[in-house]
Amino acid sequence: MTTAISSYKKQEFGWGTVEPFVLGSMNTITLKPVKFEGHSVIKLEPEQVVEYKTETQLGFYNLSLELETTSPSLHCHDLLVPLISKGEITPPFNVTQCF
């Protein structure tokens, strides 16, 4: 399995596993949803708290994701992850490029 590490404001907060995958000739894959687990406390500076509150109001969070693979790791920065509230996702999730 591939380990997925999520971070917010450059602070890791959750880990999950992703089913094994191979990048084909198009170098594009769609990952199944990943459940991140962790109990990390994220310490935010005052301006980051304002950003967090704004993101909460807008319904998404600006996260980073790293996939640790046997080949070079993949990094997804500025991944906009929607807030799930009452079982509904708002706004819809958009495809993101990773490097």
Describe how the helices and strands are arranged:
Layout: E1 2-8, E2 11-18, H1 46-58, E3 60-68, E4 74-85, E5 88-90
Antiparallel strand pairs: 1-2, 1-3, 3-4, 4-5
Number of strands: 5
Q: How many domains would you count in the coordinates?
A: 1
SSE pattern, N- to C-terminal: EEHEEE
Secondary-structure-derived class: mainly beta
| Principal-axes shape call | globular
User: Taking strands numbered 1, 2, ... along the chain, how are they ordered across the largest sheet?
Assistant: 2-1-3-4-5
Mean pLDDT: 80
- The count of helical stretches stands at 1
Proportion of helical residues: 10-25%
Strand content: 35-45%
Q: How far is the first residue's CA from the last residue's CA? A: 19 Å
The parts where pLDDT drops under 50 for at least 5 residues are: none
The main β sheet shows up as: 5 strands, antiparallel
Radius of gyration: 14 Å
Task: Describe the protein in words.
With 99 residues, the protein is mainly β. It is globular, with a radius of gyration of 14 Å. The protein has one helix at 46-58; strands spanning 2-8, 11-18, 60-68, 74-85, 88-90. The longest helix has 13 residues, at 46-58. The chain has one domain. It has a five-stranded antiparallel sheet with strand order 2-1-3-4-5.
Give structural attributes.
5 strands; 13% helix; 99 residues; mainly beta; 1 helix
Short description:
With about 100 residues, this protein is mostly beta strands.
